[in-house]
Amino acid sequence: MRLLATLLLLLLLRSAEPRRGPRSGAEARGAGGRVRGRGRAAVTRRQTQECKEYMEAGEKYLDCQDRQLTTVMQDWPKDIHHLLLARNRFQVLRDNMFSQFTQLKSLDLQQNDISMVEDGAFSGLSQLTTLLLQHNGLRTATEEVLLPLPRLTYLRLYDNPWDCLCPLDSLIRTLQVPSNRNLGNYAKCAEPESLRGQKLKMLRVESLCVDRRPESGGGGTRPPPIKAKPEITFLCHTYMFPRPLLDCSSKDLNYIPTDLPSDIVKMDLSRNSIKHLRPKHFLLSKDLKLLNLSGNGLQHIDKASFAGLLYLRELDLSNNSLHYFQYGVLEDLYFLRKLSLDNNPWICDYNIHYLIYWLKHHPGVFHTGLICSEPQEFRGWRVEDYVKTYNGECPKDKQNGVNGMDTGQGGQVGSDNDAQDVTGETVEGQGENLSQPLKKKPNKFEIIRLS
C-alpha cells in the first residue's frame, strides 16, 4: 500500500507540472504592464547609457559628447534644453534631424566631421539661441539653414574650410546684418586663394559671384582646396550654457591662445605649461569674469598682462612658481573679488610688499595662500605678518642712525614707503625716542623782530 501511494503521488505531481507553467504565464500576463514597462526602460537605458542626463539651474542637459555617434536617437528625452554632441562622427545634418527637441535652447555640434547641412536640418528649433558648428568640414551653406531659428543669438562657424564663392552669398549677407553681431564671428575663407584668411563678416559680398575661371586654358583643373590652418583654440572646447566657457585645461599649451572669443565669461587655462604672461594677452576678453591659470608652473607676469579685464571677479593663480608680483601688475583688476594664490613659493623680501600694499587698499578681495617659502627664517609665516615685522623694525634702524650708530647708508636704502611708515608710527606715539629730535628742529631757528 505504501508503494502504491507513493506511485500515485508521483503521478499527481507530474501531471500538475504542465499546469504550473501556464499559470505562471498567466500571472506574467496579469502583470504585463509592469513587465513591458521594465523592458522599455531597459531598452531606453541601453540606448542612452553612454549619455549623461542632468539638471542645472532648472534646465535639462543631455551630454552625449565623445560617443562616436553618427545620428540622434529617437528615444532620447524630448524635453531637453541643451544637447551636447561635440566630438562625435556626424557628417551630414539631414532635414528635421532635431525637430523632436522643440524646447532646445543650445545645440553643440563642434568637432565632428560635418561637411553638409541640409536647409531643413534645424526645423522645429524655434527656441534655439546657441548653435556651435566650429571645427568641422563645412564649405558652403545658405541662409535657409538659419530661417527656422528666429531666436538664434550665438552662432560659431570658425575653423571650417569655407569656399567663399557665389553659393555662400546669402549666408554671408545674413551674417553681416548689424543686428547679428554674434553670428559667425572669426569664420574665415579657405578658398579661393585670393580670399584665403579673410573673415566672412568682412568680405565684400559683391565679389563672391565674380567669374574666377582661369584665363589661360592650361590644365583647367582646379587645385584641391586647402583647409584653413586651425587656430590653437581647436584644442579647446567652448560651452555656452549655463554661461560661456572656454575650456583649454590640460592641452599642453605653452602660451595664451590667440583670437580668444570676446564674449567668453569663464576661461579655464589650468594644468598647461604657460610660464610667462605677456602684456595684453586678454585685451579683447572684456566680458571675462573668471580666469583659471592654476597648475602652469607660471613664473613671470608682466605689467599690463591683465589689461582689459575690467570686470574680472575671480583669478586663480594657485599651484604655480610665482615669487612676487611686479609693481603695477594688479592695477587693471578693478572689480576683483577672489584671488587664489596657494602653493606658490613666495619669497618674503621687499619685492613682496607691493602685493600686500595692493591687498590692503582692496579690502573687498578675498585671498588665500600667502605663505612665505623663503628665506629660511620666515618659512611658514603669513606674508602679512612678515610685512608687519619688516615695517616694525624700521623705527629702530632710524633710531640707531640718529644716535650715531648708523653708517649713513640706511637712509638711501629706505624708500618713500618706509618713510611714510616711520612717520605714521611716530605720530601714533610708537617711536618716542625718534620723536624727540623732530621736536627740537624748530629750536634751531630764532625769529628776530626788527623795530
Automatic annotation (TrEMBL):
Signal peptide: 1-18
UniProt KW Cell cycle keyword: no
Keywords: Leucine-rich repeat, Repeat, Signal
Domain of life: Eukaryota
UniProt keyword Mitochondrion, yes or no: no
Domain annotation LRRCT: ranges: 160-210, 344-395
Region entry Disordered, spans: 19-42, 397-440
Pfam families attached to this UniProt entry: LRR_8 (PF13855)
Record-linked InterPro entries: Cys-rich_flank_reg_C, Leu-rich_rpt, Leu-rich_rpt_typical-subtyp, LRR_dom_sf, LRR_TM_domain-containing
Name the record gives this protein: Leucine rich repeat containing 17
